[in-house]
Write a structure and sequence with these properties.
mainly alpha, about 120 residues, globular, two-stranded antiparallel sheet, 2 strands
Length: about 120
């Protein structure tokens, strides 16, 4: 008889502000710290608990989300940047987040994609 899989943990509740830049924007997106496309990777399965795959989420604004995905591949995100602290340790992410944090909540950087829902 197969073992039942452990229950998946729920994502954290939506905060009032972006978990990277701290701006209180109207809409936040869910950033999967371990990208969903990498969940079946043997390396990811060895290094991350199954429950962690579904619950490792940051609520971030669209500009922060777009910037992360412009800088880092999904493989890099899964293997080296699977936490808020690791993301903020990346010089390109940290510099952008510090710059964006000084802007008003309705500010959208040039070149940002049109708003979308995740």
């Amino acid at each position: 008889m197969p073992r039942p899989s452990p229950p998946a943990e729920r994502p954290p509740p939506r905060p009032a502000a972006c978990e990277l830049c701290g701006r209180a924007v109207a809409e936040l997106t869910r950033h999967h710290l371990i990208p969903r496309m990498r969940h079946r990777s043997a390396r990811v399965q060895r290094t991350h608990a199954r429950a962690e795959l579904g619950s490792a989420i940051l609520w971030i604004c669209r500009p922060c989300h777009d910037h992360i995905h412009e800088l880092l591949s999904e493989k890099e995100l899964a293997e080296r940047y699977a936490s808020r602290e690791a993301l903020l340790a990346h010089p390109g992410v940290r510099q952008f987040v510090e710059w964006l944090a000084a802007r008003p909540p309705d500010f959208v950087p040039r070149g940002s994609r049109a708003p979308r829902r995740d």
